[in-house]
Amino acid sequence: MTTGARSSPVALQVRLHRIEGQVRGISGMVADEKDCIDILTQVAATTRALQAVALLLLDEHLHQCLRQSDPTGRPQEDRVEQASRAIARLVRS
């Protein structure tokens, strides 16, 4: 992944490490047979955090795809199609 000033790889790694900790916490809650509602609350928070990372990655991809000059000389329509596929992939997940 190539990122500019918009979202640095370090910032994304920090978010992903936080999410990793959340998942470990959920696993511990399940093992300790904590209240189901509390577990679901943590699952929802983790899901939102992953969605935020996905949106950051998509935003970066769109900016690269649509704003940078394409060294391969592909037409603009191809880059728009690539961006559209990335959006569809995120929405389907």
UniProtKB/TrEMBL annotation:
Keywords: Copper. GO terms for biological process: negative regulation of DNA-templated transcription. Pfam families: Trns_repr_metal. The keyword Transmembrane helix does not apply. It comes from the Bacteria. One of its GO terms (molecular function) is metal ion binding. InterPro entries: Metal_Tscrpt_repr, Metal_Tscrpt_repr_sf. The keyword Plastid does not apply. Belongs to the CsoR family. This is Transcriptional regulator.
